[in-house]
Amino acid sequence: METVALHTRLREGREADYDRVHATIPVELDAALREAGVHSWRIWRSGRELFHLVEVDDYRAMRARLATHPANIPWQAQMAELLEVEDDYSGAEPDVRLVWELP
């Protein structure tokens, strides 16, 4: 299993919208994430900055599977309205690298 950290940023003024939308994740999306190997996905927000911690069997495979999944497409369209940079699923590698950890 992989643990992946991600960073995204909200569009200015969309903080409350993001929190509201994430209060209830669609059942179909939940199932799609789990089927794609996601064990846990946690998101912290500080102002407009979002920090994700994902525990997944295979991050690259998960991204490939979700890119065209019918439950994920409308979710990503909704997220594109809220996020400063839309996720177009072109990248398979996370952009946050582990630098240090307390052993």
UniProtKB/TrEMBL annotation:
Gene3D superfamilies (UniProt xref): 3.30.70.100
Top-level lineage group: Bacteria
Pfam family, one: rhaM
Protein name in UniProt: L-rhamnose mutarotase
Higher taxonomy: Bacteria, Bacillati, Actinomycetota, Actinomycetes, Pseudonocardiales
